[in-house]
Design goal:
It contains 6 helices and 6 strands; from the N terminus they run αβαβββααβαβα. With about 150 residues, it is α+β, with helices and mostly antiparallel strands. The radius of gyration is 16 Å and the shape is elongated. The mean pLDDT is about 90. A 6-stranded mixed sheet has the order 2-5-4-3-1-6. It has one domain: Archaeosine Trna-guanine Transglycosylase, Chain: A, domain 4.
Length: about 150
Amino acid sequence: MNNAIIKREKLIVMSIMTYYAKQIFDHTKKFEFRKSPLKESDLNKDIFIYSAKEDKAIIGTFKVSEIYHGNTEEILKLTGYDKRKDREEIVEYFGKNNPKCFALKLYDVKKLKRPISLKQLRKLNPQIMLPQYFSYIYPSDKVYDLLVESINL
């Protein structure tokens, strides 16, 4: 069982486009690219993947072991995307000379056996605000126990 959950620390939900979430689950995408960093204190914790566009559900989890920071070219080289066919997607996302690029190195990727729909989440907490980047779910939120339970299935 995850130590963060035993201590009842806040949980993290990150919004990821379905297209990229599928690549994460297929293990063809080992990094999540962002324009702002994740907190160092959130490394090595379960991060729930919220697929907003197609699924409108929490569909899995991953952990982040490292956060790379640099300009667009440095991030491409650090992640190996400088040699990949889809490198242009990263350049398009960041821009050619962006000095503030971040790459989250993913590991321990797990797809939930049963996705948790936005409808299910809103039954427990009608005011739930799911992120465009990431948000925290605190133990006092009625959604918290449902997320914890989904990891332990």
